[in-house]
Amino acid sequence: MAVSKNSFLYKNGLSIVVVSLFFIFLFCQLITGWHVKNDELAEHHLPPLTLYRYFLSPHFMQATFENWESEFLQMGMYVLLTVMLRQKGSAESKAIGEKEEVDKEPVPHEKAPWPVKKGGFILSLYQHSLSISLGILFVLSFIFHFIGSLNNYNEGQIDKKLGIITWKEYIIDSQFWFESFQNWQSEFLAVASLVILSIWLREKGSPQSKPVDAPHDEN
Length: 219
Prior knowledge:
Shape: elongated
Largest sheet: none
Number of helices: 8
Protein name: Transmembrane protein
Order of helices and strands: HHHHHHHH
InterPro entries: DUF6766
Distance between the termini: 37 Å
Helix content: 55-70%
Keywords: Membrane, Transmembrane, Transmembrane helix
Number of domains: 2
Transmembrane segments: 12-31, 125-147
Radius of gyration: 23 Å
Structural class: mainly alpha
Number of strands: 0
């Protein structure tokens, strides 16, 4: 059945599908992680967790926020880097040596967001609200990843009848930073792939691609 171009679904389809996929894969992570954790407990002859207890567990918390942290770092850095840096021929880069629509100073008008109409400090903050929001989400995810990772590590220590460590000891432990760096590097590999591959490759209809007939050296 055709969807009307004036319908809510047509106008918001991208957000609806992406958010739906997020919840689907988060649920899949929850179920599979639950089985992994219970397999680990069984190896140590410990009772299994219910699904609800696993949802609240450090194991699930660490795995979830470990990934969110890297995603928000990637997106925040990408937003900032594309303000300052260029890549000749990439669909992900602004044109070289030219001012673009996003560079112009905001002008209040009837349909402008209220911070533009307000001006002053509110406008200054709003001009960088995307990177600020992503930065805050990164910091929060980093903190929750650390808490989950520390508690998960200490739970393992208790299961092995070994001593637990403090947050001050864990913040310099290789385990925590290994979890972070293995995700951070993969995020920037993905960004680099999109930036560089979009110089020569195309996807008709995608705003992440140049027009199919565009020259390779054109942004």
